[in-house]
Every structure is written in structure tokens, then in C-alpha cells.
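As a warm-up, study this chain.
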Amino acid sequence: MYFFVCFLSLIALNAAIASAESARNEPKAIELFNGKDLTGWVNVNCALDTWSVRDGMIVATGHPRGILRSEKMYENYILEAEWRHVKEGGNAGIFVHADALPQVGAPYTCSVEVQVMDGDHGSMFGIRGCKTTPLTNPRGALRAQPLEQRAKPAGQWNNYRLTSRDGALDLEVNGRLVTKVKDCSQVKGYICLESEGSEVHFRNLRLTPLPSSNPPPDKVARDADGFVSLFDGLSFDGWKYIDAFKGHWVAADGVISCDGRVEAKRGGERNLWTQKEFADFVLVADWRLPQKPVRRQMNDFTDDGFIKRDKDGKVITHEILHAGDSGIFVRGNQRSQVNIWSQPMGSGDINDYHKDAKMPVEIRRATLPKVSADNPPGQWNRFIITMRGDRITVVLNGQTVIDNAKLPGVPDRGAIGLQNHGDPVEFRNLFIKGL
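Now compare it with the structure written out below.
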């Protein structure tokens, strides 16, 4: 009997040890929001007052459209969040597996959106290039729809519990599983809260990590890599804005637009410059020429950078769709201008260098685009401009058009400038990192 009791006691002890060990190994929830400030979050492309903390809530004004992003990436986890809209018809979202920076011409990132919209009840879908396969109410659509209507109306709190596991997402709304997707094209990335036109509140944001599947690089979102925004989406804070610009240079809903009609006295300023100066950097800048294009004969250029002429000296032209002219100045210098224009060669050239007959031929050739990479007129384009020493590289829409070209005499540092060349132009998603 004694030995039997000892045996049972040993079993109980081992069970207790195993239980304690299991409890120690169980993942603990991470508080994504401390209830006091936005520690752990990054305001990606919104104004300073778009996102704030009040009464233990993260509050978004809805203006401009944009995102608040987690500092870290996450893959497999259980995410819990509470949200409410202030007014009927409110719209917002929670983005998961998100890139750090917005997609070209958009305020939002490549990600999976978990809809936070009054009356929606929890649909899920990929946005800005992210793909998913809907498992609930697919009906041939790209969005997974909730199996039942569980969300409470504006003014009341809702609870989301989202389980992310190896590219599959299961969403519980107010205690019941309603929406499922699989085959997410990105399975690891940032978590973002969305500002989209109306006030919304978030609270009790916590995440419980689950074991990783060690996804390959092509399944992981693009990271932040040190970029910071030059534009808050609503104002010209951080820019040299003068009275003559009023009504001509305009900042609204994430876009800086210029109508090309700034009236400047002779020698007066027409261009918009950053207040800060930069030395070596990488600049991301989205742009488009929005006016209706017209067919026009434009100059062709030789491989040496000069205007092309026939044997009689007549300029050789090429008919294209012309939508205007602008550019981006680097290092505070209008000579070092990355062109935005409607030319057969495409945008990205450094005009003042390749047309300068005093420059060596290798300099002129290097400052001409290697390929025309512009999107059609009216569509958004993205420059990634790298300045390192006196060398510049320009990537346009994913293609390298200028490759480590030397710019003799370029200043060591200076402001970034957006050009007013007399035509309408728009800019957005202006991000920079120092090197």
C-alpha cells in the first residue's frame, strides 16, 4: 500500500512539473498599445494630430487617409482588438502582413485588410497587390464575407480576434468565427490601423505570438529600412511655403499638387523646397502629370545627350502624348534636377548635365535615361533617387534609368525641391532616409 501511494504521488508530481513547464513555455500576450501614448507605433503618412491617445484609446480623425504602423513585423499570432465608430457610416480597417511604405500613388500598403466599417461585419481581402483566397461566402469574389452579422452599430464597442497561421486568417467578431481566408501572398509583415475619412477608436490591442513557419523572403513584407516621411498629408509643415504659393501649391488628403500658375516676380521663387537639408540619402517620391495629354512633337536626343539633328541641322522630333513638365531638385541645386516630363527618352534624366557641351561625353551619357520607364500619362509613378557623394542613381517604376552617374560640382548637401515648371503636377508618398 505504501509503495502504491508513493507511486501515485510520483505520478501527480510529474504531472504538476509537466503542467508548470507547459505554462512556462506557453507564449505570453504582448500589449501592442500601452493605453497612454503611441510607443511602439509609427505614424507613416499622416498629420501629427491624425493619431492621438485619449481615455485609453487610440483615436484617428480620419484625415488624411493613411496608416499607423507597428514598429515590428509579426507572422503567426492571435491578435485581439476592440474598435468603435463615432458616427454611422464610419470606415477604417486593420491591415496585417503589411509593407512598411504605401504602394505607388496610394495612401495604403500592400497588405490584407480586415474591414472595420460600420455595417460590414468583418470582411477580409488583399489590397494593393496582396492576394488571398476567400473561404467564407466567396461567391467568385476576391473578398471573404462574414457568415453572419455580428458587428454592433456606431457608438458601441466591437471585439475582433484574428488568428494568423501560415498564411491563413480566421476572424472572430464579438465571440464567434465568421470570416476565413487562406493563401495570403504575404504571411509576415506589419500591423496597421487605418485612417479613412471618419473618426474611429481602437483599444485593448494585444498579440499572442504563435510558432513561426520560417517563411521564405518572397512571403515577407518589405521592411521600413529607416525611411521617414517628408509630408504629413495635410499641410506644408517642414516646407518653405510663401504667400505667392497660396491657391497654387496645395496640400490635401496626402497629395501635394501644383497648378503651374504661381506668379513670381523676376527671380522670385516658384518651387517648393524642404526646410531641412540633406547630404547622402535615398528619396522615395510618387508623382504624376494629371492634365489631359495632347499629341505633340518633342525633341529626340543623341546618345551623347544633345538634341538630335539631321544632316541639314534640322531638329529631329518624335510625336508623343504630352502631359507637362516638372522635376525634383536634389542638394538645393536646380542644376541637379531629376526631370519629370513628356519626352521620348522618358523621365529621370539630369537635363543640365547631358546638354552641357563642356561636360565629358561619359558624364553626358550617364545622365540620360537607359530606358523609358514612365507609366502612361495621368498614372502615378515612383522615383527612388539615391545620392551618395557626387553620384546619383534614379530608379523609375522599378527600372534603373540612371545608374551611379557622376554630377561634377553638385553641392555636398542641400534641400529637396519640387519644381513648378508651368504645368499641373502632383506628388505624394515622399519618404527619405539618410545614408
